[in-house]
Structures are given as structure tokens and as C-alpha cells.
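Handout, page 2. Input:
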Amino acid sequence: MEHVLEEVLPRIEICEEECKGCGLCIHYCPPKVIEASPSLNSHGYHPAHYKGEGCIGCGICFYICPEPGAITVYMKPSKGEKR
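Output:
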């Protein structure tokens, strides 16, 4: 299982119900791996959506997001760091 996780890290998860569709994460993402979802969430916003690959784990989306808990960043552990 650990080997499988290393293949998909770094990555982000976006809670689409928490997202208000401001677009800050989309604009400031260096590798441009976040896009606006074509569908609406229950609040009537087009939430941000992770494209599924290409995340570099920089965390800019997390820090720029005004909605606490909307974005979670999963980064690769440092060498020697245990999970």
C-alpha cells in the first residue's frame, strides 16, 4: 500500500462543498493542475477541481484559499521520514 501511495503523491483533495469558486487556487497554481468544475455544488458555485495529476505539493493553493478546510495537500515524505 505504501508503494501505491508514493506513486500518487504529491496531490491535493478539494472539498467541493466547501469551495466558493473564487478561483484563487486556479490562478496561483504553478503547474496549473486545478480547474473550475463544470458542475455546481449545493451552494450554486462552480468549485475548483483537481485534474488528477501533476501536483508538485507546493501548498500555494492551500495557503491562498480563503475557505478553511476546502483544500488538503498531500506531499511526499522527506527521505528517512516515517508515515
